[in-house]
Amino acid sequence: IFARVAPEHKLRLVKALQGENHVVAMTGDGVNDAPSLKQSNIGVAMGITGTAVSQESADIVLADDNFASISAAVEEGRRVYDNLIKSLAFLLPTNLGLALILIYGIMFFPFDPVSKVLLLPMLPTQLLWINLVAAVALALPLAFEVKEPDIMDRPPRQPDAPLFNTFVVFRVVLVSILMTAGTIALFTMAYNQALPAGVREALALSRAQPIAVTFVIFFQVFYMIHCRSLKDSLLKIGLFSNPTVFWGIGVILGLQALFIYLPIMQRIFRTTPLGLEDLAVTALAGLAIVPVISIEKWVRLRLDARRT
After folding, report:
1. Half-sphere exposure of 168 toward its Cβ, with a 13 Å CA cutoff?
2. 43 - beta bridge partners?
3. Which of 17, 187, 199, 303 could make a disulfide contact with 121, Cβ separation 3.0–4.6 Å?
4. Among 66, 83, 108, where does a domain finish?
5. In which order are the strands placed within the sheet that holds 25-28?
6. What dihedral do alpha carbons 84, 86, 88, 93 form, nearest 10°?
7. pLDDT over 60 at 114, yes or no
8. For residue 129, what pLDDT band results from cuts at 50, 70 and 90?
9. Is 172 in the same domain as 197?
10. What's the CATH number where 154 sits?
């Protein structure tokens, strides 16, 4: 504990702590606090009693001069950072999965020189449809997610900790591979079932591709629900704690219904309507991501418990 510290000693204390790789926050309200406020990683000045010099030197000004506001700001900052990681954990694997689907189709699916049919699980316009509706309807609600229950019990994050940490990289690889495998499997099954029945290749393709697109939509819906918490189950954070999630799910399912059944959308995206059986198969296949991510969360919790 240091008391009655001179201004130059405050500055030396801040530099000494920074020399030990600590993140230093400094509070002050007087002119003599300005050098240490400027030197610290986070300078906090008083908004009511603080001088103009201290306020200009600080990074944050407490409008109410209440130190409890600092804790509230830290809590909100951690919530924002968590939601950023959740959005990355959702968007990156789903976008990488779409790229892998297209690459796989180009590399391994044949091109018929007679019918001029390029056998792709999805057309570029269909990929663009998924990107547009998913990014808005599913990724945006994650920004409004409430804070995790233990958000203030965690140790401070290291300043040099990478944004693309081990968790994000592993989740991107795992989910993108699962989405790619499921899409290729359903597309191949639907396409091969249509050909023996005497359906023309172009018509078989227009039926198999919306099945692949619908599977990806269901897959993303179920996966987004799991992204609401980085490590805990939905029961712990509250299933209905973020109502915007359900608005987003309703919007994307409504738009996908227009994609499947609206005649003008069928002409634009070269698709045919799906039956209830097709919808059930794609929904059940998309649901497979739920137990996989649940097991992954359980394993990570056990590994974290062993480290501590």
Report:
1. 16
2. 26
3. 187
4. 66
5. 25-28, 42-46, 60-62
6. 180
7. no
8. very high
9. yes
10. 1.20.1110.10
Please check whether residue 287 is in contact with residue 224, taking contact to mean a CB–CB distance below 8 angstroms: no
Specify burial of residue 116 (Cβ count, 10 A radius: 0-12, 13-18, 19+).
exposed
Where in the sequence is the domain holding 56, given as residue range(s)?
Answer: 7-66
Burial of 80 (0-12, 13-18, 19+ CB in 10 A): exposed
Q: Which residue has the tokens 């610290």?
A: 40
Closest CA to 35 of 63, 72, 9, 65: 9
Count: domains in the chain: 2
Among 66, 87, 112, the domain boundary falls at 66
The answer to whether residue 281 is domain-embedded is yes
Query: What is the residue type of 166?
Result: T
CA distances from residue 14 to 27, 41, 96, 197, 209 in whole angstroms, order as listed: 11, 9, 44, 77, 61
- Are 160 and 27 part of one and the same domain? no
Distance CA 213, CA 7 (A): 65
Confidence of residue 158 (pLDDT cuts 50, 70, 90): confident
pLDDT, position 222: 94
